[in-house]
Input
Amino acid sequence: MSDYNLAQLNIGVKMPRQLTTSIEQQANLERNNRDTKEGTLNSPDTDKIFGGSIPKLYEEYLVPLIFEPYAADLAQRLASRPLARVLEIAAGTGVVTRKLASVLPEDVIIIATDLNQSMLDTASGVGTKRPVEWRQADAMQLPFEDSVFDAVVCQFGVMFFPDKSKAFSEARRVLKPGGVFMFNVWDRIEENEFAHTVTQALEVLFPNDPPRFMARTPHGYCDLATIEQDLKHGGFLSSAHISTIAARSKATSPLIPAIAYCQGTPLRNEIEARDKSRLAEATDIAAKAIADRFGPGAVDGKIQAHIVAVEC
Output
């Protein structure tokens, strides 16, 4: 076992309870939904399951690690527009929602939705500067009337939609004429150094069947031509404005990004599906790989994403 054993390492960071708690439901689903094309336990059906302790670890570790700068960016872009009603889809634990509630005028109605109620429960528990409406909803079948929102925003969620064009058509349907659909997606995994390092490290632990969640889903929808085509198929006739922004992902220890990715995302489902007893070992190996590449103390890695805006 490496120097980054979870049971031994003390990095001065508050460690969550039951760090290696198994997620029985997700593991069982993972076993029962084998991806026949790949012939492995990598299943897109479980990529969107954020249950068990994942929401808490996601909020505590992943949000400050990679989501904060892009959430601020989206909120500032929307703040410059005249708005009365804003819908957020795939809101997760509410990092963008909190930014919107801080920068938009108080008379702007904000409704934040997510497919996973557990994520919304965490979001509402963290709270916002002012009241917002939290609502469980499927982005591919939104429970709202036509033409009722001035903006629809989504942070790093469209990659999880099974039918992107269908979800885009729903966003367009609920937008008013002249409204804007704004979202961001991660660039390819090679441009996102911690995610890439963790994915490569787990190939060593599971050489015959490496978990591919990070490459397949969060970083699997980065081709700009495909995004533009899906928007057109979703009914957006105007050209999308797309910008690519690099930022830095920083943590006080290699263990923090290791926990964030291995235990605070559905990558955990894939690890536990292979062997429930090896989650701590997988996290330890990921931390060691990050330390080998970025150093044993504070770490700093590149992240990069595309920001997309299209008007009705």
Summary: Residues 24-311 form a domain with the Rossmann fold fold (CATH 3.40.50.150). The two ends are 55 Å apart (CA to CA).
